[in-house]
Amino acid sequence: MGFLDTLLWPFTWLVSSIMAGFHWLLTRIGMQDTNGLTWILVIVGLVIILRLLLMPLFVRQIHSQRRMQLIQPELMKIQKKYKGKKDEASRKAMQEESFGLYKKHGTNPFSSCLPILAQMPFFFALFRILNSVPKIADGSHSVPGFFTPALAQAMNESTVLGAKLSSSFLHSDDTSAKFLAVVLIIAMSVTTFTTQHQLMRKNMPASALDNPMARQQKVLLYALPLVFAVTGVNFPLGVLVYWTASNLWTMCQQFYVIRAMPAPGSPAEKALEERRLAKGKPVKKLQLATQEAEGEVVEAGTGANVTVPRSGQRVQPQSKKRKKSKNNRPKGR
Q1: Phi–psi pair at 35, nearest 5 degrees
Q2: Who has the most CB within 10 Å: 52, 100, 240, 321?
Q3: CA dist list (Å): 50 to 57, 170, 189, 255, 259
């Protein structure tokens, strides 16, 4: 066992065990052991389980992204303050003020990478399993978990439109495998682009689009699909199925979040306000919490606005009965 296999051992164990569990479930309900559709559904089931496990990271990412968008005006003031100053002291001071702002509002520019970084070990584990399917089937290679040689043999014999899921565009002479690889690479690239596009065009205020971070995201908007298109020719078909299914999950999840909890000042927020007004519901604005502001407004779990005094101590909500009793209490008690 090499160093990479040792490093990926727990992730390989989990991935192989989830795949074995879904295969057992699908064959128990009547699907064929060597049917390619069975194994595609096994991989889709793997995506669902892993994305549910990573849901807390996604929620954290959403909250952090919202705070990042809200502090853009303050961040731009810091950048404007040090614009044109290239000395070491100025650069250090700008970094300190910027990171102080991130810390103050509980966010950082790298939080949006958490979900994709958390997925990478599972992605590589699946890549290693699919690349080793023929060797696992003949007993010359083993993986931790419950992915037995019999399961590997069943997967190795399964085909989708004549192509094996362990085949890739570059490492296969099968025309069907090449065709499916191209289709999946296009689907993977399109879903990546769509996800980033709806985030930038629907869930960002105009002020947040004119800064270095937004410009970097615009570059990634077009660069990431190209990266996936170039590297995808090396991936087994099963890995392409996994990544495309994961992108579809992200796209749908993000669509719901943008619709239900849009960023302040974004086109999505205006659309939400119009829907609420059309239904006769009150419009609730989300403002950024600042410790210096009098009557600070912070994010509440219910979507309501909660005021906080200058000291930063949160005012606990009180019922009308308790508030009335407190106001009628004699002084001195």
Answers
A1: -80, 130
A2: 240
A3: 12, 28, 21, 19, 24
Q: How far apart are CA 224 and CA 241, in angstroms?
A: 18
Q: pLDDT digit of tens for each residue in the chain (333 aa)? A: 567 778 888 899 999 999 999 999 999 999 988 888 999 999 999 999 998 988 887 777 777 766 776 777 787 788 788 887 877 888 888 888 888 877 777 777 666 666 677 778 888 888 888 888 888 888 888 888 888 899 989 988 888 888 888 888 887 888 888 999 999 999 988 888 887 777 666 766 665 555 555 666 666 667 777 787 788 888 889 889 998 998 898 888 888 877 877 776 777 778 888 888 888 877 665 544 443 443 333 333 333 333 333 344 444 445 545 545 555 555 554
Q: For residue 262, which of 222, 303, 290 has the smallest C-alpha distance?
A: 303
Nearest to 43 by CA among 176, 262, 292, 238: 238
Report yes or no: 249 and 48 within 8 Å, Cβ to Cβ. Answer: yes
Residue of 212, 214, 265, 219 whose CA lies nearest to 79: 212
H helices of 142-236, where?
149-157, 175-202, 212-231
pTM across the whole model: 0.71
Residues 6+ apart with CB under 8 A from 24: none
Terminal CA-to-CA distance of the chain, rounded, Å? 74
Residue type, 190: V
Residue 161 CB neighbours (<10 A): 10
